[in-house]
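Try this one yourself first.
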């Protein structure tokens, strides 16, 4: 028999055993969780339990045992219902008047979004300490990829997640539920399993069996009307999908058929998107003497090369370019342009910033500083993302720039650069 890895949710100690133990070897608590695959699982989903309502209860202790809903009064809907209110059948998105009918004592609180956002940020900081790969899904949930963090934290991802759960409770005062698995869709399903303050693990070995008995409505991306259609064909559980004729299924699910079948089997190749905490990267230079327009453009060109090299190092591609100018009279001018064209290549940065610069410069004004920055990042990890365009000239420029980057990386300097005039040729 393979060994079972046990973790105590109280003292966070881990031990192996061939038999199932319900008591902690160390602190004797009964709060023990065991799983065969604990050491291999590193994708987690963290979800705050009835977030808005939990925050309101935290801030007003007199509400502790009362049924509470956050939402619009009178004609509004419920945005979040606490676990006491849920016992009356109150759910999110239910009209407030209906919730009041179900529970006349219901305390309805107007949402304080700014306050919730502030708390959401505090939770984010706790998650960021555990891994750089945190992908927020909404104000109160996120995916985390903890692969490779064992050495740093000296514990497996499961224990890291339990630590986060405890820290959020002790520092912020609300409970969260954690799902741990080997991919995003399974981690999300796991976090829903024993709310509130839940911790649930789904391993690879058990995934298909576990899913087969579950209603198809749990599959990520299946809408209510699609579920209804499938139900009318006798497809109620995930296992029913596999026994159904593929072509008939395709008539309902269309191009998503294969994806849905894979999800129903526990296969999901989506990566946890590393949302960078870097919001922008910028470079600037101050002039020691007054410069002509042509000289400033030369400086701008050098800045573009520098900025591009930083973006390439970090694998960042932005959508917004900002130009900053400071006059000799210390007036600061900033101008931004946002477009869907990816910003990373030096020649793109230059042509865009040169345009901004030309719109701004005035005849009788001298400048003492110029800077450029790129923000609004999209990380360059999307396989479909193309820096090369249909445009032949642009392709040439990209290829030349990549070639020069390669030379520079080989000689370990940035001495080889593309002249500005190359970039100006259309
Ligand atoms: Mg939630």
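Now uncover the answer:
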């Amino acid at each position: 028999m393979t060994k079972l890895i046990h973790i105590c949710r109280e003292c966070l100690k881990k031990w192996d055993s061939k038999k199932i133990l319900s008591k902690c070897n160390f602190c004797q608590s009964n709060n023990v969780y065991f799983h065969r695959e604990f050491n291999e699982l590193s994708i987690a989903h963290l979800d705050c339990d009835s977030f808005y309502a939990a925050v309101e209860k935290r801030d007003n202790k007199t509400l502790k045992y009362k049924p509470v809903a956050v939402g619009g009064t009178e004609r509004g809907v419920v945005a979040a219902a606490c676990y006491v209110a849920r016992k009356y059948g109150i759910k999110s998105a239910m009209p407030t008047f209906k919730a009041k009918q179900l529970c006349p004592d219901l305390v309805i609180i107007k949402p304080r979004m700014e306050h919730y956002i502030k708390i959401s940020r505090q939770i984010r900081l706790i998650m960021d300490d555990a891994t750089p790969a945190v992908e927020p899904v909404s104000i109160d949930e996120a995916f985390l990829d903890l692969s490779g963090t064992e050495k740093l934290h000296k514990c497996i991802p499961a224990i890291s997640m339990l630590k986060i759960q405890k820290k959020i409770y002790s520092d912020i005062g609300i409970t969260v539920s954690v799902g741990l698995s080997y991919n995003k869709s399974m981690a999300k399903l796991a976090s829903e399993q024993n709310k509130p303050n839940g911790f649930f693990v789904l391993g690879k070995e058990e995934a298909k069996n576990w899913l087969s008995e579950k209603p198809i409505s749990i599959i990520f991306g299946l809408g209510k009307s699609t579920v209804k259609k499938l139900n009318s064909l006798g497809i109620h559980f995930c296992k029913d999908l596999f026994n159904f004729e593929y072509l008939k299924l395709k008539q309902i699910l269309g191009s998503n058929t294969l994806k849905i079948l894979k999800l129903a089997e526990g296969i999901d190749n989506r990566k946890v998107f590393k949302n960078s905490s870097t919001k922008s990267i910028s470079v600037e230079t101050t002039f020691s003497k007054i410069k002509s327009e042509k000289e400033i453009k030369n400086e701008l060109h050098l800045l573009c090369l520098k900025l591009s090299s930083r973006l390439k190092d970090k694998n960042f591609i932005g959508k917004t370019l900002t130009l900053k100018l400071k006059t000799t009279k210390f007036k600061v001018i900033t101008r931004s342009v946002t477009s869907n064209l990816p910003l990373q290549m030096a020649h793109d940065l230059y042509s865009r910033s040169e345009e901004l610069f030309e719109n701004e410069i005035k005849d009788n004004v001298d400048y003492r500083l110029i800077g450029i920055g790129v923000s609004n990042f999209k990380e360059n990890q999307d396989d479909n993302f193309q820096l090369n365009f249909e445009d032949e000239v642009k392709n040439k420029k990209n290829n030349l720039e990549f070639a020069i980057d390669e030379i520079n990386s080989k000689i370990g300097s940035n001495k080889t650069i593309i002249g500005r005039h190359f970039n100006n040729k259309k």
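Discussion: Residues 47-48, 51, 140-141 surround magnesium ion (CB under 6 Å). The first helix runs from residue 51 to 59.
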